[in-house]
User: Fold these one by one.
Assistant:
Number 1:
Amino acid sequence: MFSTQSIDECSDGDAAAGQPGEADARTSGTAAASRVAPRVVTTGRKKVAERHPVDSGEIYGTGERVELEAGGPSGVRVTRHLDAVDAAPANVAFLDALAFSVVPPDEKSYTWVLEQMQQFLAIETIEYRRGLFGFRYSARIGDGVGVVAWGGESQRGRVFFSLMGQGCSMVKDWPALQSWLEQHRASIKRADVAYDDYEGRLVSIAWAVEQYQNDGFNAGGRKPRAECFGDWLDGEDSTKGRTVGIGSRASGKYARCYEKGKQLGDPASSWTRIEVEWRAQDRHIPYDILTRPGQYLAGAYPCLVVLNELQSTIKTVAKAAQIAYDRAVENAKLHCGKIVNLMLAVVGGDYAEVVKQLIRPGIPTRIEPYSYHVRQDPMMLDHQLNGALS
């Protein structure tokens, strides 16, 4: 059972921001409802019909299938749909973030959701905080596992639950979680699907730039915009890492390609990650993205169909934890190496006595995001014993 840590004073009023993934992405100059045929499905930049003009900007910019029906404040209700490539392996990618909202039964609230989620992952601690995403109250789960938010008249009893990368890596049974979401009619608000290339043989920053320049990220709409972040001035000699962002987060579909190993602190790492983030902004995110992430990643952009290396979240956690561990050891050597050397001389070379005097409980902050897996298997940090992970 989870326990609570510090409790902050909760705000009395609802936050002004709306629920994540529910921001409007409506277009201007839309035809009146009476002129729009209901449930018209199209893709790319094609117009629905000349007599039903629809701005092709934000609606068609993602290249996703679009369903239009009469209704909504602007006269047209827009729903975008994710496409999957059935020929791609389902486990060629993995969930790196997941958020959903659900209405608990019988006027129950967030405690019911937390108890239910313990079927799928370990929830050890929660830390209460102020309101979040338009909900009156919220709490952080573990150290970077996720958040839960609830309360506020405008939310009509809904509870928001979000898992970040660490939380997703702790999920024990994705098919069972998918069934739970379907059973309780939860609404998926965000899903991030990722692919890791540890050696950078296929996926790299240079690959992402080339694919963008050759329309590999053009999914049938207009060419998405691109932006660069990080250590670009040093080019391929970058030690801190670079990122290419494709698309617009305002549209609810956004791709990132970045040097994951360098981001974690290994300046020589070739580990590169490509991930696609979907938010439910006028978009339906299907339940089976939990069990077919690779097929949805392949369907996101033409250039992603070629990805074929099967993914393992445990392998990813081990790689990340090893990099963090190595950096922590280097820092310890830099700051404490000399005193350890002196202590050995003082106690006549008694290593056990030096360790006894220096050891203290806990895990370094740098490794804390991987603490759940490290506690389960500390030997995952040993490179020699985990050669099979490479």
Number 2:
Amino acid sequence: MKRVFGLLMALMLVLPTTALATESDIIPIFGGDGVNVDIGNVGTVELAEDFYYLDQENVKKFSQLNGNILNGQEVAGIGPLAEDQDWFVYFDYYDSGHIKNAEKEKIKPDKILKEIQEGTEASNEDRAASNQIFVTGWDVEPYYDKDTHNLTWSLMLEDNEKRPFVNYQVKLLTREGYISMILVTASESRKEASDILSNEILTKLSIVQGERYEDFDESTDKVAEMGLTGLILGGAGLAVAKKVGLLLLLKKFWYVIAAVFVAGFNWLRKKLGRKKDQPEESSSTASQDPQGPDQTIS
């Protein structure tokens, strides 16, 4: 544990932040019967009592507290209150345009993995040895569920000291973009955490009427230039991905250093657990006003 905290502090020293935050600034909403929380303007989640939710403002604060670089697309975060669970899910929303005919695209995992590895090797040449990242293979090969419009994949990676970590992502396609979910957890906990994401969060996530994938109107809505492969490669074409490598693929690349940030999530959960024991209006109502997320999506 001391090693984990040491790594955490080292990363926080080298990563830039744009604002200062403390645990007292972070105001959660706790799950329970009838508690529904917003995922930007496009979705809602029925939040189980074992989870806590951070709205757009608070998830940004938590990100900055951990030294993460904000990208302007953050809309929410969900984590567990149970002490035996170590995971957190970041939600972003991208108005990329409609990813058309996703169900017809043939995903080629071997080719995509090769592109990512080549790009990562190229980007490592311009990085200090201590900052190099290596892609070792698929943890979960990319697959698209045409019924739920979810694109899921997970990469296995190592740092320069061969410490393993995973990058588990789910992209939920919508009418004019997609919700991006990045699961942060330790490698050994990935299976349990991804099962919770799939079975206890995604099944409770509803896209609002008019923003569903099938609500796309070709006569009025913009269409994305990329397909599923481009989405896996970080929104860039393959030629660009070769040059920029994993830095583009993982715009929030420090979110995936799971073994490091699990300590931070444990700390937050304990803080929030103590808050939940105290009667608070924000934890006893399904309404998110005034604590709810800012509905403006950039």
Number 3:
Amino acid sequence: MSDRFNLYGFRGDDIDEVERLISDTLEVEFTSKESSFKGGEYFSHRGSGRFEITIETNFTDDEGILSMPEFPLYSTLIFVSYVNSEVERRLDAQGEIDLLRSEVIQ
């Protein structure tokens, strides 16, 4: 695993659809979770090592601010920590999601 974090976005707002799409693309299973800090329902998958994916809504908080205001066109966000090249390749080839940010984890 590399020490990188990637953020992907999906323009549609059906988080269940995104979970199925990513699950099929990466051949992984997600756990449905609930958190007011993440806008309600979200999905999480932990792989080997520190590899983790969460699928969350780009929700509007009580003050009317999006959780990721720099990406207002993306209703659903996919956070991938300790991403590897195979996961990147599959997600990039998927076509319905966009890479929004990639950074080295310090």
Number 4:
Amino acid sequence: MARTDRDRWDAKHRALGTGTSAPPDALRGHLDLLPSSGRALDVACGRGSVAVWLAGRGLDVVAVDVSPAALAAGAELVTREQPPGRVRWVEADLDAGFPAEDDRYDLVVCQRFRDPALYPAMAAALAPGGLLVVTVLSEVGDTGGAFRAAPGELTAAFACLEVLAHREGDGEAHLVARAPA
């Protein structure tokens, strides 16, 4: 990612300040699928609202983002809402590839960050039986644009997983899928 892009994201996150914890959008109506313990990876975590929410549900979370300002806001949020030590904040430029860890996760979440080149790595990061939760901007119900998924993109990209929930519309696509046991 270009330094100017990182600076832009830092400015945006600084202006927004610390957020509040919240579940991933794709899990609306499907919270029963979420593991109550284990390890989670939050890809492009932003200000950490999902990471902190997951920590509050008993998961140990690795939260990855390119923006130091976003990670600082997440670290502040977690100290307000959760016991320390449940979230590890990792600064990484996802444009350079997926963070190199040999770990597998019981849950991988990616909310509103779309890079189809990372889809295989996200699926590979799942432990057997692990849950993938993805929300991206979509062309479905929107005028389109460079950062929007084509219709059916998520189900095609993650065809190796069991799709548990999928919806597209109003400019968003959501997928909840499980890795083979």
